[in-house]
């Protein structure tokens, strides 16, 4: 049996992963599950999947969770240390699906403990890609992309020689406001931004999809996973979200990956480590669909994308700063202290200040990354008050 743990089990990716495991329960042993606050769901999943250990990030919920699991053999931990405890348990495979930079240390811990890491948490690749890759190669374990575009890139590059690749295209749906003009974006609310036309996802990534911050993170993630330069990564708007990535080769040939807008496809590909199993999942019916649309992203409407490309060009600690500033701006948009368009203004101002103060050098040690994450959040906070 394959021993697995899921970090961020109570979220959208975590639940999709458990759904896949429930199709083939006899093949998997669930070692650990973690969540931030939802103890009812965590306890239910721990009992159903007979987990060895669970951790809840919110320490105040420890005793309630322990009571819910009374009489079961599941061990209970809490707080950041509890999440680290679970991520360090011996397993074959770990899903990293905590949202935000909170996923970085648990993911690294899982790699250090010798597990292959399926990485939905794009923020850890954005903030610390070189460290993630170094630890995975030092420990002889795999770092497997789960993000649909990056899983698609891995699939289209399979069997190809790297030197023959001209560029990669990743698609963006355009999110909740793709038909809005820039002026119509001025007064949109967090509620409006939290509904995605194609994908069912957690609130934060859904809002990031509407602003294209998600795509900016994915451009950086693509650079890290596949060693691409900025000019080798193109973003194309594709409202249907069915083509996820295209590899363009020097001979003019292109290989596209298509799949329904359902994360179970790329999670399954990561879970079965590149084996394609027969699974009860949806398929695309091209004849019924008729048309697929593609367009150029509007960089005036979506300044986030330009910021992402600048991070790819700059390298070093720019990814960690960008992600932290974006998380701070997003928190303030969700709590209605910042407008939707204000998010990109705050991140632009934060990055400009940090670039010109020479704070974003190449000191890619984990301590420097965590320190810069704190600095970028505090600089971003000062700009939230101005925009
Ligand atoms: P979500 O909000 O639905 O779930 C997040 C999970 O992280 C939950 O289990 C939550 O309890 C946990 N969590 C939140 N804050 C935490 C903290 N401080 N400490 C510990 N645990 C914490 O998010 P999601 O949509 O499942 O996304 C998870 C990750 O996967 C994100 O990095 C996202 O960008 C990435 N991703 C998601 C999708 C998708 O379709 N949902 C697609 C591609 C990539
Ligand atoms: Mg994606």
Would you spell out the secondary-structure blueprint of this structure?
Layout: E1 2-7, H1 12-23, E2 28-35, H2 39-48, E3 53-56, H3 62-68, E4 75-78, H4 79-87, E5 93-96, H5 104-112, E6 116-119, H6 122-138, E7 143-145, H7 148-157, E8 165-172, H8 190-193, H9 203-211, H10 213-226, E9 233-237, E10 243-249, E11 254-258, H11 264-271, H12 286-289, H13 303-314, H14 318-334, H15 340-356, H16 366-384
Parallel strand pairs: 1-2, 1-5, 2-3, 3-4, 5-6, 6-7, 8-9
Antiparallel strand pairs: 8-10, 10-11
Number of separate structural domains: 3
Strand content: 5-15%
Helix- and strand-based class? Answer: alpha/beta
**Major beta sheet, specifics?**
7 strands, parallel
Q: At the fourth CATH level, what is the homologous superfamily of the largest domain?
A: NAD(P)-binding Rossmann-like Domain
**How are the strands ordered across the major sheet?**
4-3-2-1-5-6-7
Written account of the structure:
With 387 residues, the chain is an alpha/beta fold. The chain folds into three domains: 2-145, NAD(P)-binding Rossmann-like Domain (Rossmann fold), CATH 3.40.50; 149-257 and 285-289, no CATH class; 316-384, Rna Polymerase Sigma Factor, Chain: A. Helix content is 46%, strand content 15%. The protein is built from 16 helices and eleven strands. The protein has helices spanning 12-23, 39-48, 62-68, 79-87, 104-112, 122-138, 148-157, 190-193, 203-211, 213-226, 264-271, 286-289, 303-314, 318-334, 340-356, 366-384; strands at 2-7, 28-35, 53-56, 75-78, 93-96, 116-119, 143-145, 165-172, 233-237, 243-249, 254-258. It has a seven-stranded parallel β-sheet with strand order 4-3-2-1-5-6-7, with helices on both faces. A four-stranded mixed β-sheet has the order 9-8-10-11, with helices on one face. The protein is globular and about 60 Å long. The protein starts with a strand and ends with a helix. The relative contact order is 0.11. The model has no long low-confidence stretch (mean pLDDT 97).
């Amino acid at each position: 049996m394959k021993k697995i743990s899921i970090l961020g089990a109570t979220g959208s990716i975590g639940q999709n992963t458990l759904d896949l495991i429930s199709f083939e329960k006899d093949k998997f042993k669930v070692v650990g599950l973690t969540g931030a606050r939802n103890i009812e769901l965590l306890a239910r999943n721990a009992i159903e999947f007979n987990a060895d250990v669970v951790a809840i990030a919110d320490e105040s919920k420890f005793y309630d969770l322990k009571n819910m699991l009374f009489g079961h053999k599941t061990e209970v931990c809490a707080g950041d240390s509890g999440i680290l405890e679970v991520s360090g348990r011996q397993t074959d495979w770990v899903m990293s699906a905590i949202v935000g930079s909170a996923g970085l240390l648990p993911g690294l811990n899982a790699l250090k403990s010798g597990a292959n890491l399926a990485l939905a948490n794009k923020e850890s690749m954005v903030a610390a890609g070189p460290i993630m890759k170094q630890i995975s190669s030092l420990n002889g374990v795999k770092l497997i992309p789960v993000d649909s575009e990056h899983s698609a890139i891995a699939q289209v590059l399979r069997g190809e020689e790297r030197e023959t690749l001209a560029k990669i295209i990743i698609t963006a749906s355009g999110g909740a406001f793709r038909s809005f003009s820039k002026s119509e974006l001025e007064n949109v609310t967090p509620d409006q931004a939290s509904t995605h036309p194609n994908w069912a996802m957690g609130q934060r990534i859904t809002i990031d999809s509407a602003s294209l911050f998600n795509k900016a993170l994915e451009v950086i993630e693509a650079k890290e996973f596949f060693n691409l330069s900025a000019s080798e990564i193109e973003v194309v708007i594709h409202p249907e979200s069915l083509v996820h990535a295209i590899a363009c080769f020097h001979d003019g040939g292109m290989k596209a990956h298509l799949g329904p807008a359902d994360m179970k496809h790329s999670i399954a590909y990561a879970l079965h480590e590149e084996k394609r199993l027969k699974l009860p999942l949806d398929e695309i019916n091209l004849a019924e669909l008729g048309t697929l649309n593609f367009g150029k992203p509007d960089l005036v409407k979506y300044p986030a994308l330009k910021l992402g490309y600048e991070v790819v060009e700059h390298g070093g600690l720019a990814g960690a700063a960008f992600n932290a500033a974006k998380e701070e701006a997003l928190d303030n948009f969700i709590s209605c202290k910042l407008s939707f368009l204000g998010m990109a203004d705050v991140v632009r101002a934060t990055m400009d200040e940090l670039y010109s103060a020479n704070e974003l050098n190449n000191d890619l040690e984990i301590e420097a990354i965590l320190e810069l994450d704190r600095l970028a959040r505090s600089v971003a906070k000062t700009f939230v008050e101005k925009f």
